[in-house]
Amino acid sequence: MQKEDWDYVPEGLGPRVNVTILVVMGWLAFFILFLFFLAGNMDGLQAIAILIVSIIVAIAILAVTWVSWGIKMARMKKQMSAMEDELKKEE
Asked: Cα separation of 84 and 76, whole Å?
């Protein structure tokens, strides 16, 4: 792998990384606040259920964010492969 390969950052990667950081930090803040202020007033199963639902919501947000990028990258790779095949045929 050459140096210029490492310098390439795909378009749209920055905002997705920012969303990921915000979701993870937001979930950690929710988790800590929940444990200190709300979990004591609930049954153990209710507290576990709320935490599981919060994890599912966080995963759903991240999935929507990253799946669209993955699909875009797969399309780009397919286009690049097609272009490489055309160049090989011309040679």
From this structure: 12
